[in-house]
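Ticket #4471: structure output looks truncated?

Reporter: J.K.
Steps to reproduce: submitted the chain below (881 residues) through the standard prediction queue, then opened the result file.
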Amino acid sequence: MKKLSSSEIRQMYLDFFEERGHTIMPSASLIPVDDPSLLWINSGVATMKKYFEGRVVPKNRRMTSSQKSIRTNDIENVGKTARHQTLFEMLGNFSVGDYFKKEAIHWAFELLTSEKYFGWDKDKLYMTIYPEDEDAKKFWIEAGVEPDHLIDMEDNFWDVGQGPSGPDSEIFYDRGEEFNDLAPDDPENYPGGENERYLEVWNIVFSQFNHKPDDTYEPLPRKNIDTGMGLERVVSIFQNAPTNFETDLFLPIIHKTQELSANRKYGKVAADDVSFKIIADHARAITFAINDGAIPSNVGRGYVIRRLIRRAIVAGRDLGITENFLYQLVPVVGKIMQSHYPEVLKNADYIEKVVQSEENRFNDTLSDGLALLNELMDGVKKSANKQMSGADAFKLYDTYGFPFELTQEYLADAGMSVDAEGFKNEMQKQKDRARNARDDGNAMSVQRDLLVDIKTPSQYVGYTQLTVDNAKLEDIVFDEQLVDSVKAGKAELIFDKTPFYAEMGGQVADQGVIEDQDGQLVAKVIDVQHAPNNQNLHTVELVEPMQKGATYKLVVDRNFHNKVEKNHTATHLLDQSLRNVLGGHTQQAGSLVEPNYLRFDFNHFGSVTEDDLKKVENMVNDQIFAELPVTTIETDPKTGKEMGAVAVFSSKYGKKVRVVSAGDFSIEFCGGDHVKNTSQIGLFKIVSESGVGAGVRRIEAVTSREAFEYLNDKEGLLNRIAAELKAKQLKDVPNKVAQLQSEIKDLKQKQESLEAKVASQQANDVFSNVKDVDGVKVITGIIKDSGMAQLRQLADTWRTKGLSDILVLGTNSKDKANLIAAVSDDKVKAGFKAGDLIKAISGTINGGGGGRPNMAQAGGTNPAGLNDAMSAAYDWVKTQK
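Returned output as attached by the reporter:
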């Protein structure tokens, strides 16, 4: 067999299909764009949904790609099996209503067996087919497959509910008897069974039916091809690797981890090998995810990143690595993938910073996890069966990264056990949640064939003119039908040319009117969107009847349009200013350009300081005041990139692109409308900055008149404040405010001093009232007109003087109540915990709380329940004996 690197295999696949008329599509971001159903891009076809659904007609109906993907539904199996990965690359070729089964099958067999390409022995290949798919069987035999290498499989039918579906063929490679892990008579010992010998390398889906709501199937008007070949699996075959991990995609990471470990070597100890594999896999996943804009957090995809990082760190500790190490693997991943993903190495410094910060954070979390483990073990000691619940063990696993085996070891050393079955149940619940989310994301809708069939050309002329006098009405869509005329209501219209901008790239659609040749109003344009074949589709409310083939005057609302232009150019200036101030890692994550304001989302690790925000705002205004010319040229994408143009997201660009420049300051690919000179923007003002998701920040801003009105309103507010403060000039306001704050601080201190004295006087009576509850000395009391600060001071006094074993104090202020509980050190050792006590009594005040074993507090909304809380405290003490 040929000896090929992963880079060579990837490129050979793409070249093969490019030679057969396919367009090579760049690998899209792992973070889905305009697809809220997906947490991650989890397959090659996930990036093609818009084409298969008919929302967009591709420039070329034949496409191929090597798409990076993430799946985390089986994360606990990573490292323990030969081929489970969180990040993987899916090679694929796609046909959207172009070629079908014959071509897909013949090309697949040619790629796999031709000496010019993979050159695999055809006798080692087996294909599974859907039993009723006679065409697939015929074409495989035509291609050169022996009939006894074709296997009928009832499961070979791709169907995820309503929408496109169809039979599929899976291709298996026989790795030989040395990989056989089953007995000869084992029912799974065949191509397609659960075994190590026959490795699935490719799946070809023949999407030819529409699964209808009544569970019947009808033929699709356009049949599609969707294939997926796992790069990691194919590389393992070429490099004769026992698992995916002994390939050039993983070994450099494993070798670097060896250097960082306590003299551990891969391939020596099975348990160590699992740790090496977990680290190598997770290092790849987090590097690519962070590069694409994901940031560790406690929700969504940020939680996935945090969990992977922590799991890798725990694996590192199993290898004797106690210092931060994971960030050092980032450049190793970048070098491995440099040929197809050069941006990873380019952004390595930023990715390392994020990973190292999370490693630092986890040291604290790991300590918290150990503290919780010890606390839970204390509870297990008191239980009858000396067994930790599965739910508690799962919490340690899921929240703190504690492997179940580690929890078992801790408990076993202390003569206790853990409910393994309960843990498995909790794990299954999590898997079910992940599977449900995944199934929803894979669903597709059927193409809106009416719009797909409309191929009438339509020219957008709004870059240079906002009125078209003689626009021919080419198509009318009314009630999902093509009609020749329409009298009333809403309709969708396509003209041969139009000045109306169709919503795209964050810029909202133009508004305006349609008139007849006599100047009479016939319709109001309320929205404009792109039809699948890229025409501008106008949604209108009719005033008068309209006729196909007639000519009309199209008039864009000039004021609306001009305000949008100003805000759009301002977003370009803002984008570049953010890169200049915060760093080149910032990427646009979304935008909205309205006439009255703009919104700009961007990826950034951490909050933006007030100082940096002011720098950004000043930089944008400097470009406005510099009166930079805004120019647009049309060129090809390659030339645009060579000019330094910034691309948005993972956008796919056609043969021609528009490059918009604001002087030498900003240059971007953009199909939107812009001012001719930055001075037309007038003024730029940021009105808010906030976080909207894990690692995503949002800036909202205004320009021109709206910026002036915003500042004018602020000045009016300041004038009113100055008048209230009796400040003669605005510049005197800060001093007046400082003076008031100082006076308030003094008054608060005096108030707290008086409250402390009153509380201390009341405490003398409370502290003298010690009750004996089954041998435990308890003090309880209600301190009137006090606060939590005073209760804490009294608790400190109580502890210093050693007045009793347990203290419970309460106080009220208007409609709020506070409780504090304290336990002496001796009683803490005996098993009495203030946190448990406060939880037991806080319900009486309609509240809740918690704290440490020796001190805890709670707040609530029912002051009337304070007396009941004191009684409940005595009852709780009795239950602890």
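Triage note (M.O.): checked the attachment and the full token line is present. Residues 437-442 have pLDDT under 50 and may be disordered.
Status: closed, working as intended.
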